[in-house]
Amino acid sequence: MKKGTKKSLDFEKLGVFYLGRLYDLKTRKGREELFLYDSKDLVTHAVCVGMTGSGKTGLCISLLEEAAIDGIPAIVIDPKGDLGNLMLTFPDLKAENFAPWINLDEAQRKGISPEEYARQQAALWQQGLAGWGQDKERIRRFREAVDIAIYTPGSAAGLPVSVLSTFAKPQAIEDADVLQEYVTNTTTSLLSLLGIQADPIRSKEHILIANILSAVWAKGQGLDMPGLIQLIQTPPLTKVGVFDLESFYPSKERYELAMSLNNLLASPGFQTWMEGDPFDISRFLYTPEGKPRIAIFSIAHLNDHERMFFVSFLLNQVLGWMRKLPGTTSLRAMVYMDEIFGYFPPVANPPSKQPLLTLLKQGRAFGIGLVLATQNPVDLDYKGLSNAGTWFIGRLQTERDKERVLEGLEGAAAGTGKSFGRADMDKIIAGLGKRVFLVNNVHEDRPEVFESRWALSYLAGPLTRNQIKRLMDPVKQPPAPLAPEPTPAVQEERREEGKFQVRQPALPPEIPQYFVPVRGRQPGGGSLMYLPAVFGEGSVRFSDVKKGFESMRTVLILTPVENAAIPVNWDQGEEVGLAGKDLESAPLGNAEFGELPAVATKGKSYEEWRRDFAAWLYRAQSLEAFHSPGLRVFSQPNESEGEFRIRLQQASREQRDQLVEGLRKKYAPKIAALQERIRRAEQAVSRESEQVKQQGVQTVISIGATILGAFLGRKTVSTSTLGRATTAARGAGRVLKEREDVGRAQENVGALQQQLADLEAEFKVEADSAALTGAESIQTFTIKPTKQNISVKLVVLAWVPWWKTAAGERTPAWK
Prior knowledge:
By secondary structure, the protein is an alpha/beta fold. It has 21 helices and 27 strands. The chain has four domains: about 300 residues, Rossmann fold; about 110 residues, no CATH class; about 150 residues, no CATH class; about 120 residues. The longest helix is centred in the last third of the chain and has 71 residues.
């Protein structure tokens, strides 16, 4: 937590968030010092509590705005619809910008036209921003720093997101306990969508689905919703524990569970859950170009079961993404939830609670800052929230709310070993007003009270579906045009393509046959057929000794075998996501096989194709890599420029934080010493001024006495009267001298304050220069392999599965 002064309004500092000004509860007025919050303190998470009207939403929106300006992306869970206001930023501050978003009921209540109300709101926002040292350029800077998108799962109002199209195995989770936790949370979330509050120990539904997911994922496979429904009817297991499957969960009961999921899947409104962008946390946090994004998941339109399912699903996906990241001490991303009432209770254990606890305990190691907000502090698990390092506390509604908040603060203090003054905290919380918050940060010596700043975004209140649609329609991708229906002549031609046989071709023993796994679902009325191809697996090492760069690439290619002059053309091959170890040794039953060209029945052909494959690798493979000379960082294999830039941003922030922290340690003693000298000098001014005042009073008394004696009618001037006059004259001289001393003391204060300003300016110059470290442009270079760096591991015959319809259409069954 840093402080600034009102005079400089210097809140555009590195790694700090401008959230408001310090506030004096005694005078009920804001102070001159700015309230600046260190971004890296957020890796220990934050909690914001306050009743309706306390300004909690405005504070949290300001926090998200500051993070965006600093290049920090965010996942935002919005149960009420308020957070879409982040898109209502109008750099020109014109009335016509505000007009579509004003509250018409409020305008009618005030008896003014919508146009006039829009003008009032534009003027109010311009005046409010100016009062907090902000302007149109800061709004523009916020808009240019971040991309904002509103996703609406289960609705087409915003950007649709595909949630239930697949249950893919989480990547980069090697720990068996962590994977089992993921299975449990996924199963609990899915059953909550059906309204089933399943106990992982006692619920047959939970145990069955968890075992199915574990069995499928153990094979490295994914599963979609139709596949899950099918496996519930015919599970890939015969026993559950020591009981056989039928005794544990009879087929009739499994059918009922499958029908419940099928009814959910078949409902017209449920299709939107399976459409839209794939569920990829990296894509939500950054654009393809590497620009940070605020991804707002608006769930106000969902019912309670759907909300619980989606929140749990999203949090589990964040955990899976987080565990693939390298560790860091700097803030990498934010996860913000606007209202956690019901999702983190003290006693019950909804599916959302466990991933929230895990994020609170483990997120800081990966630079993930969790921010949780609520207006109902009673129903919260404060033992879990004791992991939060920062508490923003606004005006509370009841004494019970205040007591629960004090319990949470006491638990957070206990975790740091600091003393907790409950009575003082109680008194402070009781005196909080609108937009005034108590902040308790474990990284700081004491709590502070501050008034939150004016938000850059227009706070229009919860957005309706139509308003969300209006915001997001311009950025939605148009649907792809439907392919024209093939003509009867084309259909007949496709029927005649190739010759097929029921039996697998017999080949010499030196030519082993392998089969690509079937992954797609069989279309209605279709059959399975295998077409011959050659599978090649090789590795290419790219090395540049001068740049200190080395990378290995595995190339996996499938290319068809044809009756042609060049039966195997590697240029026509397709890269696939399976290795030689993934090939199967037997086909699925009831499959047809395409005609195998004669050349593929000879062993020497594969030796030739192996040599051709090596030559193709040498000719066709190259590596485009990126390099940041300033940070001495190279891109990783298959890392896009956008992904590389994201990694550089994090590396730059970490380097920046280290440099700025070093500068703070360097300048802190000097600044503290000057502040102490200023304090002593100001005391001297006060002391000298008091002496002037006292001397002036004595002089006035002496002069008054002399004049009074003369006035009383003495005809002659006595010796005592002359003495008093002389003393009064000397007193007047001493007053003049004391006033000169005050002037010199004041000049000393001014000189010291100028020294402090110069020192702060020197610190700012050095801190600003730290921001430029490693900011030079990225260099691109291309590396070609040498023949010695190419290795061919496998070239074999591989049968590729296809689905064939009655009309002769083919669709891949292996993708």
